[in-house]
Specification:
Layout lengths: L5 E4 L9 H14 L8 H7 L5 H12 L9 H21 L9 H10 L3 E5 L4 H12 L9 E3 L12 H10 L6 E5 L2 H9 L3 E5 L14 E3 L11 E3 L10 H9 L1
Helix pairs in contact: 1-4, 3-4, 4-6
Length: 252
């Protein structure tokens, strides 16, 4: 096994529990456009099987709202609606309404101090990435990540491996020089599809997903005073994810 040189982070659900924020932003966008749609948490759980906000809107129309009078250009309709949704989401982030998951900031700072490179491999938009990193991590956090690979930069979004292949290409690294941090079934299918070993921390929307092939599955990243629970795999004596555990998992 080659030396670990980079961590590749997913964003939504991995760095922060953002999905409730996205859900609220979607519903505000629907209201602004005069639509009688209001997605519940249960419905959104199902819609998350589709990656990408615009794709999610179109999927909802096609599967859950057959009586909706579809516009002539459904793609343009979804694009406009998603733009409004993103504006609401960014506003929420700017208020600090969505904090990072426990352990994220500590882990990123530890990786930086050890000279491990950082990258993002996500389906979400660059605007959403920046809104979260700048407001929840650090005003200069965008510069901490050498590569930002987002869904709109590739032909196929997760679970396709395209975004991971893009991140690896831009880093000029091999898959076995990296490790991915993910939270969902679509995410791990994407990372493993690119050959990148993957660590999982579940959340309320993904606790029932299939994580076959994960190096380890945790309920959270953990802190010294907030230990994780290992759902699958072997953490040894570790009680929270740090670079020592990541290196051991990478080398296993």
């Amino acid at each position: 096994m080659k030396e670990l040189k980079a961590l590749l982070f997913d964003v939504d659900g991995t760095l922060a529990e953002t999905e409730d924020g996205h859900l609220a932003a979607f519903n505000r966008a629907f209201e602004e456009r005069g639509l009688d749609w209001n997605w519940s948490s249960e419905l959104y759980h199902e819609l998350l099987s589709v990656t990408g906000g615009r794709e999610r809107i179109k999927y909802f129309v096609e599967k859950y709202n057959p009586d909706f009078q579809r516009p002539d250009d459904l793609d343009a309709f979804a694009r406009d609606l998603h733009k409004i949704k993103t504006e609401y989401y960014v506003q929420m982030m700017s208020k600090g309404d969505v904090p990072l998951r426990p352990g994220v900031k500590r882990l990123i700072e530890e990786a930086r101090s050890e000279g491990v490179r950082l990258a993002i491999a996500t389906t979400t938009s660059p605007a959403n990435i920046e809104a979260l990193l700048v407001n929840a991590l650090d005003p200069d956090a965008m510069s901490w990540f050498e590569v930002i690979a987002a869904g709109d930069m590739v032909k196929a979004k997760k679970p396709a491996p395209d975004v991971y292949f893009l991140a690896l290409e831009k880093l000029a690294l091999d898959a076995d020089e990296c490790i991915a941090l993910e939270d969902s079934e679509n995410g791990i299918q994407s990372s493993l599809g690119a050959g990148v070993k993957t660590i999982i921390a579940t959340n309320k929307y993904t606790h029932d997903h299939d994580f076959t092939g994960a190096a380890i599955v945790l309920d959270q990243w953990g802190e010294p005073d907030q230990p994780f629970t290992v759902l699958s795999g072997d953490a040894g004596d570790a009680t929270y994810l740090d670079m020592a555990l990541i290196r051991r998992l990478h080398n296993t």
